[in-house]
Specification:
348 residues; mainly alpha; two-stranded antiparallel sheet; 12 helices; elongated
Length: 348
């Protein structure tokens, strides 16, 4: 029976998380994800709650101001002007001030992990934040110009734009990106059986965390890398690890197998140290714990002792002198006779 193994010349392309299209000044594409409709709607809902709280606070302050003014000074025009100022502060001032002093983030964006930046990746300015806010109030939310139609147009623009931008972003030249990287966790690689004995004899004291992390990331993405980058990275990491470990492998193992054996042994030793630390902590914990308060025993009521019972409980040989006569008592509890005292004095 013959088995045929088909090897693909090009491995599958890696998952692309950096879809924001931001390029630094050194012509390096930044690993940044553009915010889409779902995360931005969630941030908007949180911002609406924050704006509602600000509106209630301003309404309370406005009521106190109007009550404190003379009654003949307050009219409908003044009240309407103050209400308009409060509304502008809530709808326009809130996002502009928050993005200015919190680094391009409102409370909703801060909770969801979003940030407003320029189209080139730089920090957003006050003018751009003001433009975004004014366009948003006019044609997006609450959409003072044709509310229903502007809502549909805004959602359509966000769904069709490659970077998920809304109308305010297109006009102001801004972009909303994620500030939290999406991580994909994979189990640690295991060593091949022929290298297990050799790996246990390795000296790994000079393998730092940075090198171990680089090896782990390479082994986790080796199936996504294409040649010749895959072999070049493997040889580079092999040279760095071999320079800080000893002894060398007993046979010419492939670079990925060698790196996997070293990383697996390092993880095994770390797990062993962690287990010993936990065992020692569990042993010392009773001594380190605060002393427990002893529960007092329960006292039960005893019946009263009668006179005959008290006489029966009297000790047979008292060790204290008789409190009445100041003389030692006999075994029967009565004072000694003068003859007995004289015999005791002469040693008889």
């Amino acid at each position: 029976m013959v088995f045929t193994v088909r090897v693909s010349a090009q491995p599958p392309a890696p998952a692309r998380w950096a879809d924001a299209g931001l390029v630094s000044g050194e012509a390096v594409e930044l690993d940044v994800r553009a915010a889409r409709l779902g995360s931005r709607v969630l941030a908007l809902l949180i911002d609406l709650l924050a704006q509602l709280a600000v509106a209630l606070l301003l309404a309370a302050v406005l009521s106190v101001v109007l009550v404190s003014l003379p009654w003949d000074f307050v009219d409908a025009a003044l009240s309407g002007a103050l209400q308009t100022v409060a509304l502008v502060l809530v709808l326009v001032g809130y996002p502009v001030l928050m993005e200015r002093f919190v680094g391009g983030r409102t409370l909703g964006k801060l909770a969801v992990g979003l940030r407003v930046v320029r189209a080139d990746g730089g920090p957003v300015g006050v003018g751009q934040s003001l433009t975004r806010a004014l366009v948003g109030v006019a044609v997006e939310w609450p959409g003072l110009v044709l509310p229903l139609l502007s809502w549909v147009a805004s959602v359509t623009v966000m769904l069709t734009d490659p970077r998920g931008r809304r109308l305010g972003d297109l006009v102001a030249g801004t972009l909303v990106v994620h500030t939290r990287a999406a991580g994909v966790w994979r189990p640690a690689p295991s060593a091949v059986p022929p290298l297990l004995g050799w790996a246990r004899s390795l000296d790994l004291t000079r393998v730092d965390d940075g090198l171990a992390l680089a090896v782990r990331q390479y082994l986790g993405r080796v199936h996504q890398l294409a040649e010749p980058d895959r072999s070049r990275l493997a040889r580079q990491l092999w040279a760095e690890v071999a320079a800080v470990t000893s002894p060398p492998p007993p046979w010419a193992a492939p670079e990925p197998a060698y790196l996997a054996a070293v990383l697996a042994e390092r993880g095994r030793r770390a797990a062993h140290r962690l287990g010993r630390t936990r065992a020692l902590t569990a042993t010392l914990w009773p001594e380190l714990a605060p002393p427990q308060v002893a529960v007092p025993p329960q006292v039960t009521a005893t019946p009263p002792v009668t006179a005959p019972a008290a006489a029966a409980l009297r000790p047979a040989v008292p060790t204290q002198p008789d409190p009445v006569r100041g003389q030692p008592a006999t075994a029967e509890g009565s004072p000694p006779t003068p003859g007995a005292l004289q015999d005791a004095r002469h040693g008889r």
